[in-house]
Amino acid sequence: MGDFDITALILTEHDAFRRAFTEIEAITDPAELGPRWRELADQLEVHAAGEETIFYPELLQDVDDSEGETAHAVKDHNEIRETTSAVDEHEVGTDAWWEAFRTCREATVEHLGEEENDVLPPFAEQVGADKRDELGMRWLQFHEEHEDARGLSGETVDPQEYVEEHS
């Protein structure tokens, strides 16, 4: 994989998300917990929106029979968005906040594993290295343009409409 291979960039972020969830679990000071959670929540939205803007449209075009996996991924992104919003409804550090946080973590980690096992391998096999690098450059630009989730709505996306629009 090249330095800009979108699959490698996505995997790197997946690892960072897992570490961030673990690090947040260890924080006891609400003054530190709130900002660290906001940073992770924003990163999750940038990641999901980036996949929906750059990665999944290409998957639909270049990987056979990817409609089901794409719809499922968009549904998962919606669940992550909803669980992220649920965390924000509670006072930072309360039992209710931690419960919502753990629900978000569970939804996120499950989704990451599904992508890593079911989506990224066929993409890497069926899409050439040059195309993956070009997509990776677009991925990095998207992240730069939307740092801290700037300009992203965080709204859910209808999975079936998404697949129909991008197929």
Automatic annotation (TrEMBL):
Signal sequence segment: none
Domain Hemerythrin-like: 6-121
InterPro entries, per the entry: Hemerythrin-like
Region (Disordered): 146-167
UniProt protein name: Hemerythrin-like domain-containing protein
Biological source species: uncultured Frankineae bacterium
